[in-house]
Amino acid sequence: MDRRLVDQSDSSDSEPSTSGRSEPEDEAGGDIPFEMLEQLRRDGGGTVPGGPKKSAAYQAALRKFSRENKNRPVEASAKRPVPRFREVIQAPHREARDPRFDGLSGKFVDERFRKQYAFVYDEQLPEERQQLKKALQRTKADGSKAEVQAQLTRVELQIKEEQARRQRQQILAEQKAKERQAVKAGKKPFFLKRSEAKKAELVVKYQALKASGSLEKAMAKRRRKNAAKDHRYVPGTRRADT
């Protein structure tokens, strides 16, 4: 009699524990087929509620969907949260290519580039300057006139800068030719300093202004500019105390 009561009490004590274990198993493994759960246990993953949730095999099983018939679509588990960012099929992205930094475009050579695009400074910019001068004469509004004048000044500045650059290149080319001849004659090579090149450029500019007859005008403009520059350092007059 006592033994029977003890057995019943033991069985009653053990029933809640088994039922407590079975409920998490059903909750955790409800979306996984029974065959896959058995395979996880055989592989050493342990029971479903504790260990396999953190194991790689369990996570792989969650990611692998199953279907009863091969012709039916794949059904995702309803227990998995929907990702916030969905993967949308997009068109292939076209990558921008800058030819300046692409090896397929070759090496940049400044002199060759200047020769190929010399028509911009020889033809297009002078023609644009003439058109802007005519537009400036026709324009009456102050705002539009100031805008056209700014464009004309920009074009004239580009033309002058290109002329000065070509002049410097010509001076350097002539100096290099002289040095090659001197080296062939047995003299030591001489490298022209930047200050000497600037002096030679000023001499050529002075000769060009003298030949065109605008030397006096350029010298007067230079004197006014220097006088205005020196005037900044002259102290102002003080007011007499009354």
UniProtKB/TrEMBL annotation:
GO terms for biological process: maturation of SSU-rRNA from tricistronic rRNA transcript (SSU-rRNA, 5.8S rRNA, LSU-rRNA). Keywords: Coiled coil, Nucleus, Ribonucleoprotein, Ribosome biogenesis, rRNA processing. Residues 8-21 have a biased composition (Low complexity). Associates with 90S and pre-40S pre-ribosomal particles. Residues 84-101, 227-242 have a biased composition (Basic and acidic residues). The lineage of its organism: Eukaryota, Viridiplantae, Chlorophyta, core chlorophytes, Trebouxiophyceae. It comes from [Myrmecia] bisecta. This is rRNA biogenesis protein RRP36. The keyword rRNA processing applies.
